Amino acid sequence: MAKRIGVLTGGGDCPGLNPAIRGVVLRAAQAGMECVGLREGWKGMMSGVHVPLTPHSVKDLVGKGGTVLGTSRTNPFKKEQGVEKVLETFKNLRLDALVAMGGEDTLGVACRLYQERQFPVVGVPKTMDNDLSATDYTFGFDSAVTVAMDAAARLKDTGLSHGRVMVLEVMGRHAGWVALFTGIAAAADYVCVPERPIDVDDMVAKVQAAHAAFGTSLVVASEAIDLPGESSASQDGLDDFGHHILKERGVAKCLEALLEKKTGIETRSAVIGHIQRGGAPTLFDRILGTRVGVRAAELVIEGRFGNMVALKGDSAVPVSLAEATADLKIIPSHWLALLDTVTEKTGERAAAVV
Ligand code: F6P
Questions:
Q1: Do 44 and 38 form a contact (C-beta atoms < 8 A)?
Q2: What is the pLDDT of residues 209-250, one digit of tens each?
Q3: Which one of 9, 155, 222, 336 is CB 3.0 to 4.6 Å from 67, fit for a cystine?
Q4: In terms of Cα–Cα distance, which of 206, 261, 207 is closest to 229?
Q5: 222 lines ligand 1 (CB under 6 A)
Q6: Using CA positions, which residue lies closest to atom 16 of ligand 1?
Q7: What CATH number was assigned to the domain covering residues 4-139+281-324?
Q8: CA distance 1 to 110
Q9: Dmax over Cα atoms in the chain, in whole Å?
């Protein structure tokens, strides 16, 4: 049985990581094992910088945002001697197993280490983007959408006071889950997601109809949508994992200008950016983080390496890291159909009912 477990958090932080760290440490302690936290994701596994993790030190973590271990988007497979350094740290710290918490990138590294070097690793899925296909939900998503939903309600208040159209840009990278859930939960009039092109005429018609009926209108847009007339080459640089860094693409500003021009209605936009990633985890994310953390420690105890803990229905179950990192989970058609139902032209419907 493993006696000393390393824990790391990689990629973008999100609420739920601290509850998950706590879950691993408490379950490990129950089984007589100790935990060590590696600082800043795979970077810590390369440098060896670490902190002790004890039941005492994780006591109050369940309600804290971010990650106490720090994080980075470091890919050891892209660094000189990176993998060798990871293996060296593992040996130097006398670790028996590693729990890696992250999204497709962090878990992709874990998967390769397991497959190519028989590295004893268990994965914990996290991402506010909710784009990991093997699990129903990832922690971080519920908290991010709750913040975005609140932002949308605030925009609607000021939009109504001024009779304006309001645009809210949210994160989510190449999957539109954050925009989709925010749009549905905040009763947006149009939601732009990367999974399908914007139908500009439809968007303009819906915005105008809602504005006529209710005095304001809200559009929610995901950061990675294709903008009308924009080539993907205008996106920012690439990170260590080859992803476009999407900051400052100006999606919100572009839609603001487009909508003002086409509707003739004064329009304003807001980008909430990293505000979505901060703050205390929601109840859902505290519980989910705790569950997957505890289950990850159990997989270590059982020696079931090369797996990630997935939420399937009401169960936290192991799925292979290979399966977990194979495909990105993007919005399927039945969710888009639901979106279309709830963003039907409200003006016309309201007029028809009257
Ligand atoms: O993957 C999580 C995420 O928040 C994405 O939604 C976003 O595109 C990206 O991280 C931002 O990354 P960074 O924190 O490096 O700016």
A1: yes
A2: 999 999 999 999 999 999 877 654 455 667 777 776 666 678
A3: 9
A4: 261
A5: no
A6: 247
A7: 3.40.50.450
A8: 20
A9: 74
Strand order in the sheet with 165-170: 190-192, 217-222, 165-170, 267-271
* CA 12–ligand 1 middle distance (angstroms): 6
* Distance from the alpha carbon of residue 171 to the mean position of ligand 1, in angstroms: 7
Lowest mean pLDDT among 12-16, 245-249, 312-316, 347-351: 347-351
CATH number of 144-277: 3.40.50.460
Decide: 171 in ligand 1 pocket, CB within 6 A. yes
For the stretch 180-216, pLDDT in tens is: 999 999 999 999 999 999 999 999 999 999 999 999 9
Structure tokens of 245?
């860094």
- H-only helix segments in 5-124: 17-30, 42-47, 82-92, 104-117
Q: Active site includes 129? A: yes
Residues β-bridged to residue 123: 100, 308
- What's the confidence (pLDDT) of residue 241? 78
Position 227 scores a pLDDT of 84
Q: What is the pLDDT of residues 113-130, one digit of tens each?
A: 999 999 999 999 999 999
4-139+281-324 and 144-277 in the same fold: yes
Between the CA of residue 245 and those of 18, 161, 223, 241, what are the distances in Å?
25, 35, 11, 10
Nearest CA to ligand 1 atom 3: 12
Domains in the chain: boundaries: 4-139+281-324, 144-277
